[in-house]
């Protein structure tokens, strides 16, 4: 009997935990969030040169090496970025900002792309604190149709990394040691793996394409609704 | 008895391997050699990136996986840059055959290799 009561106790605690988790961020199915992409089923995506709103001058060059892979894994044909970005450069387009008034049908015509991916690097920086620091990368991604110019998908991925290096303790000497550790950490910090994680957070919400085994099977997948972007 | 344990352990290890992430593509070190090439676009980094892409193609075939989208196209473009036009056209055609979505761009690239000569 005693084991039975303790079983009941455990059971009710578990139930409460499960119920509480239901109160997390608001969720919605992929098909309700992004109906356009299911209507059009684009097969191929052209990645446009990222728009860099951060203060890091080289963020664009480095970030753009991280986009092809996750998009391919989502099941889309991705036009080779090394080729397409070079062609766009020759046309004087270094930056997707310069494309604001270009009809997207041009990309269908010239490259054969069904959709284009705009990416904006919103944050790519390290904030130094007295001891320690934070690295923040925030990427906003938006997929647009070359057929209808409509937005098919949009999501933001953010990654914050604590560079503090833990508490080494030990009074003033400890503080100095910590400051040195932090300086060393930030000097060798490589943004790219964190940018990959930011992409992962953003792209998990994207409905999959025709090369993916779950193509046309992910309508009902739940994703977290993000607050509208603050401009 | 010992023998049986060894056999069982081996079987368990083999079956566990089968549960590993079986990813759609083999990307090798693609993004890191590309990153190095972006950081410093010298001939050595270009050669390393091209040879990495060549081994991705070989290993994808070995693993029975489809070569990642755009890879043949990028290789064709790199061969074009290093003045191997015959190879460039060969790879643009490989991309077109594997991924019909690439046709428009690949035809354009093939045409531009013949324009230049």
Keywords:
heterodimer; A: about 230 residues; alpha/beta; two-stranded antiparallel ribbon; about 40% helix; B: about 120 residues; mainly alpha; Serine Threonine Protein Phosphatase 5, Tetratricopeptide repeat; globular
Chain-wise SSE layout:
The complex is a heterodimer of chains A (231) and B (117).
Chain A: H1 2-21, E1 27-29, H2 30-33, H3 35-40, E2 44-47, E3 51-52, H4 59-63, H5 68-73, E4 77-78, H6 81-90, H7 105-111, E5 115-128, E6 133-145, E7 151-162, H8 171-187, H9 191-203, E8 222-224
Parallel strand pairs in A: 2-4, 2-5, 3-5
Antiparallel strand pairs in A: 1-8, 5-6, 6-7
Chain B: H1 2-18, H2 30-39, H3 43-62, H4 71-81, H5 85-98, H6 103-116
Helix pairs in contact in B: 2-3, 3-4, 4-5, 5-6
Description:
The complex is a heterodimer of chains A (231) and B (117). Chain A is built from nine helices and eight strands. Chain A has helices spanning 2-21, 30-33, 35-40, 59-63, 68-73, 81-90, 105-111, 171-187, 191-203, and strands at residues 27-29, 44-47, 51-52, 77-78, 115-128, 133-145, 151-162, 222-224. In chain A, strands 2, 3, 4, 5, 6 and 7 form a six-stranded mixed sheet that branches. A two-stranded antiparallel sheet of chain A has the order 1-8. Chain B has one domain (29-115): Serine Threonine Protein Phosphatase 5, Tetratricopeptide repeat (Alpha Horseshoe), CATH 1.25.40. The radius of gyration of chain B is 20 Å and the shape is globular. The chains are: A alpha/beta (231), B mainly alpha (117). Chain A binds chain B through residues 43-44, 61-62, 64-66, 68-69, 72-73, 75-84, 86, 109-112, 114, 192, 196, 211-212, and chain B through 23-25, 27, 30-31, 34-35, 38-39, 66, 68-71, 73-74, 77-78, 95, 99, 101-105, 108-109.
């Amino acid at each position: 009997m005693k084991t039975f009561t303790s079983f009941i106790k455990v059971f009710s605690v578990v139930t409460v935990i499960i119920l509480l988790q239901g109160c997390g961020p608001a969720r919605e199915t992929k098909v309700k969030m992004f109906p356009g992409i299911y209507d059009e089923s684009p097969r191929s995506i052209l990645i446009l040169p990222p728009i860099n709103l951060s203060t890091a001058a080289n963020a664009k060059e480095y970030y753009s090496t991280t986009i092809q892979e996750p998009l391919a894994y989502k099941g889309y044909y991705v036009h080779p970025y090394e080729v397409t970005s070079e062609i766009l450069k020759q046309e004087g387009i270094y930056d997707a900002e310069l494309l604001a008034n270009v009809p997207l049908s041009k990309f269908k015509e010239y490259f054969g792309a069904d959709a284009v991916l705009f990416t904006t690097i919103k944050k790519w920086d390290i904030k130094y604190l007295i001891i320690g620091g934070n690295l923040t990368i925030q990427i906003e991604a938006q997929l647009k149709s070359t057929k209808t110019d409509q937005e098919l998908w949009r999501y933001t991925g953010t990654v914050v990394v604590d560079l503090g290096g833990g508490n080494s303790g030990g009074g003033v000497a400890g503080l100095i040691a910590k400051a040195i550790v932090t300086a060393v950490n930030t000097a060798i910090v490589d943004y790219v793996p964190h940018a990959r994680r930011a992409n992962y957070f953003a792209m998990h919400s994207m409905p999959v394409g025709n090369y993916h085994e779950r193509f046309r099977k992910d309508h009902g997948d739940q994703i977290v609704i993000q607050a509208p972007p603050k401009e | 008895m010992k023998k049986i344990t060894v056999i069982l352990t081996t079987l368990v290890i083999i079956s566990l391997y089968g549960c590993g992430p079986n990813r759609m593509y083999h990307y090798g070190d693609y993004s890191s050699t590309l990153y190095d090439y972006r950081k410093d676009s010298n001939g050595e980094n270009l050669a390393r990136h091209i040879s990495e892409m060549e081994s991705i193609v070989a290993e994808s075939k070995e693993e029975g996986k489809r070569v990642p989208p755009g890879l043949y196209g990028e290789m064709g473009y790199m061969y074009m840059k290093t003045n191997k036009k015959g190879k460039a056209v060969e790879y643009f055609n490989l991309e077109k055959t594997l991924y019909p979505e690439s046709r428009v761009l690949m035809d354009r690239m093939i045409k531009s290799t013949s324009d230049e000569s």
